[in-house]
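May I ask you for just one protein sequence along with its backbone structure tokens in two labelled lines?

_____
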Amino acid sequence: MTDNINIIGNSKETAANIQLASQIGKNKISTLIEGESGTGKDLFSKYIFTNVDPPKSFTKFDSSILNTDFLKNIETLGGSDTHYFCIDDVGNLSFEAQTILVRLIDNVIEKNQSLRFLFLSNHLLDEKVSEKKFREDLFFRINRIKISISPLRKRKEDIYPLVNFFIAQFSESVNKKIFLLTDNFKSFLLNYHWRGNVRELEYFIH
């Protein structure tokens, strides 16, 4: 992964999250990125990786394929080179897989292995812990650093910059300049709920 990653937005939250993400690649601490679907968790995970110097390997897995055998095999990948593993939708892991993941993280720390973990979640994991749907000891291990991404409807300052970015992107793809930001259109953009967040906004513009 060598492409530059641009995170677009003018809100204070986005600026703070970018600042935090730029520092994460310099340490060995597991990182949790929480936010609704479509808010940009995957983008932030890639941004974190691009700020690792020198670049290392990066592999993303969906929680649905992380069975116990798979997690046991991850541990064998440690070595002199650092591997970044991004586990998506970690809140959907089975309890059996969660138990294996606890042991895996502990073994990595104990043996000082060159494995780093990024965890993405569409759910608020502390709530799942309270509901006894997620292991508390695993939550403590993966919640060392957390990036919380609010829904787009709560980050209205990010909407116009994102719209301008997507318009420019689409204009380039069709080789035609497009103007859409009338006053009525701006009002619609700010007041629409955007249940699908940034992803829905991108699809809408395109």
The longest strand covers residues 115-121. The beta strands are 31-35, 57-62, 83-88, 115-121, 145-149. The chain has a mean pLDDT of 84.
